[in-house]
Amino acid sequence: MRAITYIASILFFTFFGKVVLGQGLFDNYLGSFTFEALPDMPAAVGDSVSLGYAGMFAGVHEDVLILAGGANFPDKAPWKGGTKHFSQHVYVLEKSPGGYRWVEGLDLKLPFPVAYGTSISTPKGLLCIGGNNQNATFKKVFLLKWDPVIRQVELQYLPDLPLALSNSTGGLVGASAYLAGGEGEMVSDAFFRMDLDQDKLRWERLPSWPGKPRSHAVSAVQNNGMNDCFYLFGGRRLQETGVSELYADAFCYDPQKEGWKKISSIQDEQGTPLTLSAGTAAAQGAGQIVFYGGVSGDTFNELERYAAALSEVVDTLARQELIQKRDILMENHPGFDRDIQVYHTITDSWHTMGRLPFTVPVTTTAVPWGGEVILPSGEISPGVRTASIHGVGFKKEGAFGWVNYTVLGLYLGSLVLMGVLISGKQHSTEDFFKASGRVPWWAAGISIFGTQLSAITFMAIPAKTFATDWTLFFLLMTIIIVAPIIIGVFLPFFRRLNITTAYEYLELRYNRSVRLIGSLIYVGLQLGRLGIVLLLPSLALTVVTGIDVSMCILIMGLLSIVYTVLGGIEAVIWTDVIQVVVLLGGALICLGFVFYEIHESPAELMSIVMENQKGKIFDMRMDFTGTSFWVVLIGGIAANIVQYGSDQTVVQRYLTTKDEKAAANGIATGALMALPSALIFFSMGTALYLFYKLHPAELSPAVQNTDSIFPFYIVTQLPTGISGLLIAAVFAAAMSSLDSSMNSVATVVTTDFYQKWFPKDTTGKNTLGFARWVTVIVGVFGTGFALVMASLGLPSLWDQFNMIIGLFAGGLGGIFLIGMLSDSVNGKGALLGLLCSALVQVAVKYGSDLSIHLYALTGLVSAMGMTYIGSFFFTDKRDIDGLTIHSLGNKKGEQENKTLEKA
After folding, report:
1. How far apart are CA 779 and CA 742, in angstroms?
2. Phi, psi torsion values for 761, nearest 5 degrees
3. What residues form the membrane-spanning segments (predicted)?
4. Which of 171, 193, 591, 758 is the most interior residue, by most CB within 10 Å?
5. Helix, strand, coil proportions of the chain in percent (round to 5)?
6. pLDDT at residue 14, as a whole number
């Protein structure tokens, strides 16, 4: 144990040495754009120089940038009689140890010269759609795929479009490619979709957006707070007069609802609408779409007016005058709009975020690649192309600040100190697992509440409310409904039978096999969540503190191991108490501060909330696939019965108080805390929405996911020191989830397995030592696996494992509940119930659209039903006197209760 404390000290002071002494761990949370010049496009075979192209197919496949086709004017400017040339060439840019390099010796050329098609990067290849050349507009669709083995580009044809189109725009939502607008025989309002995962590919025509037909529109795919959607902005339509109508309107297509919605028009900081066409945009950060310039204003129309006038003027002098004015405008064209506009999909707001420092290309595609957005080639003024390739990234600047780092370090250090101070009371497993009944009921209650209030929850509830509404509010309220059931049904068994783990009851009620299987399911669930519990908060915290994600994991993991090993469940509970006080108090401070900063009247704020349906709390539809009130209510009740009735992490808190009455008070306290905390966190989410709706420039693309929105606000808006304390509490909340799992798993492994293997350890010293080493092993496993997931990007895979184990969680709660309620069930029936429940869960997950919030209900009910029915097929002579609610108060139960009280 001294070695662990020593290692923690080294980590602690290394952290402080870097931060407080000025070496720093980070540049900052606000951030700014960075710009990188990639190698210019090489000259095509036969060309002396590279001019670049407009309208190229551009995208990424197998981590290389593919560019193909395009058009330019190789001889002279178009207004001087130059002829547009359409290309068939394919180019590939790859990453190399020294930076980037163009691949030489490519064999493939496009089947025909083409430009102004639509390109979409997909896992299957670069999807190239339509386009035109001097002779025709195309409906052809094909994939360009990079083969890293033979280092060549391959071409695969896909089904043609229903009609020929060029200058369309598109994007990929899930596995479906979407295509909107364009020019063919006329400007189109067509909207198509093709699911690339289908065996038989086909284009499906969908309802058009509620606006005019258009070409040269800008699109992006971004999350709207619930799911990925297709966004369509601006564009133009050439009219019979020869002058284009320019658009500033914008629309969102939600694939889940299969419908369009009009959103805020493109606009500047003052709210003035801006027309935009042929520009580039890319989804960045959480719910943000960044626009990198484009054709805006009336300069484009001025050129078209000259073209229209020249087609009508016959007089030679007048023509020459018009041509001269046109040429002057062309020669002195200022280039296209350089402003970086940002649209936020959740707050439906716009702001300007600086200017690009280079001539902006249009009629090109913004391609996300390796953390940057690549702007390849394109048109930089009418008729003029560029061979330049630009990368735009996002840099974090500034510092979290030594004051905040000091507060963070002192807070985390105090948790370790608490473990050291409590360690003097740890003399037996009774102390280590149950604190020998020394914990006050109110502390146990706060700890029960705190172990459910993880860092993920602390960030996720405001984030979910920020993105959606209050429909999940009653999910948190259901614990108040469930608390009397826990106190009246479950608690008496756990207290009066003098048990250490919940699963001891399963052996008493059923048999040893059921107990061991229950214990294994629990241990599997905890091991399955340890990595996620550490990784997900670390990913959010690294955004706002700048501490490397691996360092976040190490800090939380190692410090949790130290104070949990030293102080046992008592240290875990008291650190929970501190964490809850700081988190709730800090959230209240945040709530007051955000409304102070908004500077709007309550009536105006309420108007915004109502207009955007952010205060919706009741969804009374009989829809069991989403978050209707019935789903939230029924699912929440079932989930809390499972959690509070069969999860050792929670049950263990019942056993740390002096008697059953104190434990009941603790359960009631933890349940009642759900109401004020839910009001605080849901209000915080709405307040964040209002703040960033009214102050969109305060929200940065540095926020990579919505779950980071609350910590981001804390760091960027709260005073120094207070923000450090709250971020420290978020660290502590993550550590609270970890320490609870470590201690509870150690309790289960020691009690349910070790003590059965080595029953002769009468002094208990070896058992206590074993429990501490199990705690270390579990903590090291969780920390190590979180580090592996962070480096390899595997959280989704581990989520799948966690989900598979979790299929049994509802069933586990079911066999507890039916065992307590019924005299008729037995051990073999319980095993059958567990198995059938898991099969039902698989069927529900993969064979239905049932809401995830109802999974606990299906697991609970199916296990109870199948255990009850299955038990009729088996006989069991086991004495269950005092083990169901029907015999709980008999003499045997009373005697066991007296024995426990004496102990």
Report:
1. 6
2. -80, 80
3. 402-421, 441-461, 473-494, 514-536, 542-566, 573-596, 628-646, 667-692, 712-734, 770-794, 800-822, 829-846, 852-874
4. 171
5. 50, 20, 30
6. 43
Alpha-carbon distance of 594 to 462, in angstroms, equals 13
SS3 sequence of 812-855: HHHHHHHHHHCCCCCHHHHHHHHHHHHHHHHHHHHHCCCCHHHH
Using CA atoms, how far apart are residues 91 and 113, in angstroms rounded to an integer? Answer: 14
pLDDT at residue 398 tops 90: no
Print burial letters for 200-219: b (CB count within 10 Å at least 16), e (below 16): eeebeebebbebebbbbbbb
| Residue 457 pLDDT | 74
Helix H or strand E segment including 332: none
Could you give the CA distance from residue 90 to residue 109 in angstroms, rounded to a whole number?
6
- Main-chain dihedrals φ then ψ at residue 610, nearest 5 degrees: -70, -40
Which H or E run contains 99? Answer: strand 99-102
Which tokens belong to 653? Answer: 């808190």
What pTM does this model have?
0.83
Q: Is the dihedral of CA 537, 540, 543, 548 positive or negative?
A: positive
Please state, as a whole number, how many other Cβ atoms lie within 10 Å of the Cβ of residue 445.
26
Q: What is the pLDDT of residues 265-279, one digit of tens each?
A: 998 877 888 888 889
**pLDDT of 718 above 90:** no
* 179 and 168 Cβ atoms separated by less than 8 Å: yes
Residue 397 main-chain phi, psi, to 5 deg: -125, 170
Beta strands in 349-453 (DSSP E): 349-355, 367-369, 372-376, 379-381, 384-385, 389-395
Crossing angle (nearest 10°) for helices 549-598 and 722-749:
130
Q: How far apart are CA 162 and CA 589, in angstroms?
A: 58
pLDDT band, residue 328 (cuts 50/70/90): low
The pair phi, psi for residue 535, each rounded to 5°, is -70, -50
Asked if residue 548 lies in contact with residue 542, where contact means CB atoms within 8 angstroms, the answer is yes
Q: Please compute the mean of the pLDDT values over residues 79-99 and round it to a whole number.
A: 89
Q: Determine the pLDDT at residue 809.
A: 82
As a three-state string, the secondary structure of 619-650 is: CCCCCCCCCCHHHHHHHHHHHHHHHHHHCHHH
State the DSSP string of 647-695.
Answer: -HHHHHHHTTSSSHHHHHHHHHHHHHTHHHHHHHHHHHHHHHHHHHHH-
Given a contact cutoff of 8 angstroms between Cβ atoms, the answer to whether 130 and 117 are in contact is: yes
Q: How far apart are CA 290 and CA 294, in angstroms?
A: 12
The string of pLDDT tens digits covering residues 224-262 is 888 899 999 999 998 776 677 889 999 999 998 889 999
pLDDT tens, position by position, 772-801: 899 899 989 888 888 887 877 654 444 454
Cβ neighbourhood burial of 550 (10 Å; 0-12, 13-18, 19+): middle
Give the Cα separation of 663 and 435 in Å (integer): 13
Whole-number pLDDT of residue 845:
86
Three-state SS for 261? Answer: strand
User: Collapsing DSSP states into helix, strand and coil, what is residue 171?
Assistant: strand
Q: What is the three-class DSSP state of 538?
A: helix
Buried residues in 704-732 as b, exposed as e (16+ CB within 10 A)? bbbbbbbbbbbbbbbeeebbbbbbbbbbb
**Three-class secondary structure of residue 602 per DSSP:** helix
pLDDT band at 326 (very low <50, low <70, confident <90, very high): low
Confidence tier at 899 by pLDDT (50, 70, 90):
very low
732 vs 520, residue with greater confidence: 520
In SS3 terms, 122-166 reads as ECCEEEEECCECCCCECCCEEEEEEECCCCEEEEEEECCCCCCCE
